[in-house]
């Protein structure tokens, strides 16, 4: 092969490589970067990546307006001389505190522009909203904030003064601190009992479902392969569960498991498998078994179809020769079918294991990870951290940990289970 042919080969591969980089590599790198920060979307001071101190100018302007309005509206006649001096002292410290940050013409102009936008009910652009400041300036600012807050301790405990105290406390919330935490998120999850429980649930779900799906899928594949007259009929029937979207399938099983109207729940209660229909999804053990059953029913056809394709590659001459030598069906299965199916079984197991380990939608619809987190998988834990708690930093950490676990599983399959297959192909 000359250089020109190699070049054409690389050019044909280039689109696939670029798609892989943009779809897989870049998002993974971005998620890893997020995992190194304490990003919390429900906390304005930690809602984005920050490597330095910043002031939320919009929040500062709103806080200053609120505090100043409350101070101007205070009924000074109801206060004694000492309390009046305290209010005056607080009012005089606010401009001094402001100058510790807005100490240049550029910064003052930015604050004025933000105030103009807020007064006109217009949105503030993020480039205008956040003002980078030094640690020294933050220390000066905090010193004034603490001094002002300490002054409020001598004020009377009235609703008006409590509102003022809350408004002044908000000055501390306008600081956007550096939220780089390095590997602290990973260290946290190494000690997290909930993650350990989620990993155990995921591994249990994966091992049990993949085992039964392989056994039942192999049985179905052999039947579909041997019964030629009914092959197309069997394929159509077997593929029905796999063709149903997972969410629809999960809802269907949830209705059948329902403690009040579920037909399966009532049937299991009638034959004594469960105490009452409500126990099917409310019991920690029964809920996991119910989720496994639904997954086995849905995904067994996937294994069966893959194995049928593998069976079709086995030459019929091998079976004919075995019959001539007097081999029965059981001997043919273990000596011919299974060895020849090893590559297909490896691929089916690898794909199915990775899919089962990342299970989310089926269990989320059925149980939501309950009861008492007994069916919570790593993917569901990640979802709850990201979207329920809005903890983007730790949620990204969990996503990276899932990637590492999936990589380890793939490595084990290829290196251990696939070693004999690949070495046989080389020979």
From TrEMBL:
Protein family according to the UniProt entry: Belongs to the binding-protein-dependent transport system permease family.
Membrane topology reported for the UniProt record: Multi-pass membrane protein
UniProt name for this protein: Binding-protein-dependent transport systems inner membrane component
Record's keyword annotation contains Metal-binding: no
Domain ABC transmembrane type-1: 199-413
Lipoprotein found in the keyword field: no
GO cellular component, one term: plasma membrane
Alphabetically ordered keywords of this record: Cell membrane, Membrane, Transmembrane, Transmembrane helix, Transport
GO terms, biological process: transmembrane transport
């Amino acid at each position: 092969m000359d250089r020109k042919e190699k070049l054409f080969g690389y050019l044909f591969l280039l689109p696939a490589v670029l798609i892989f980089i943009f779809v897989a590599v870049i998002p993974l790198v971005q998620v890893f970067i997020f995992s190194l920060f304490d990003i919390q979307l429900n906390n304005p001071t930690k809602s984005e990546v920050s490597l330095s101190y910043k002031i939320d100018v919009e929040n500062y302007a709103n806080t200053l307006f609120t505090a100043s309005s409350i101070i101007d509206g205070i009924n000074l006649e109801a206060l004694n001389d000492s309390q009046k001096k305290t209010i005056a002292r607080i009012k005089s410290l606010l401009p001094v505190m402001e100058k510790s940050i807005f100490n240049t013409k550029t910064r003052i102009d930015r604050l004025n522009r933000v105030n103009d936008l807020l007064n006109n009910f217009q949105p503030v652009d993020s480039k205008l909203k956040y003002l980078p400041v030094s640690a020294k300036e933050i220390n000066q600012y905090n010193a004034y904030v603490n001094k002002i807050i300490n002054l409020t301790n001598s004020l009377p405990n009235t609703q008006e003064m409590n509102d003022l105290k809350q408004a002044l406390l908000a000055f501390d919330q306008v600081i956007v601190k550096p939220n780089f935490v390095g590997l602290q998120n990973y260290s946290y999850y190494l000690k997290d009992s909930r993650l350990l429980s989620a990993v155990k649930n995921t591994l249990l779900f994966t091992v049990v479902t993949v085992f039964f799906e392989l056994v039942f899928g192999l049985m179905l594949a052999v039947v579909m392969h041997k019964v030629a007259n009914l092959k197309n009929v069997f394929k159509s029937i077997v593929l029905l569960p796999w063709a149903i979207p997972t969410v629809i399938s999960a809802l269907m099983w949830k209705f059948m498991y329902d403690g009040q109207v579920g037909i399966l729940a009532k049937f299991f209660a009638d034959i004594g498998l469960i105490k009452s229909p409500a126990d099917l999804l409310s019991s920690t053990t029964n809920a996991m078994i119910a989720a496994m059953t639904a997954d086995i029913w849905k995904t067994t056809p996937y294994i069966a179809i893959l194995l049928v394709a593998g069976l079709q590659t086995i030459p019929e001459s091998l079976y004919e020769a075995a019959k001539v030598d007097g081999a029965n069906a059981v001997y043919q299965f273990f000596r011919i079918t299974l060895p020849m199916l090893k590559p297909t079984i490896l691929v089916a197991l690898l794909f199915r294991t990775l899919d089962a380990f990342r299970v989310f939608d089926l269990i989320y619809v059925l149980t939501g990870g309950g009861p008492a987190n007994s069916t919570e998988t790593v993917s569901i834990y990640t979802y709850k951290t990201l979207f329920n708690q809005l903890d983007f930093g730790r949620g990204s950490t969990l996503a990276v940990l899932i990637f590492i676990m999936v990589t380890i599983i793939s490595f084990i399959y290829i290196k251990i289970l696939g070693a004999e297959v690949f070495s046989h192909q080389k020979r």
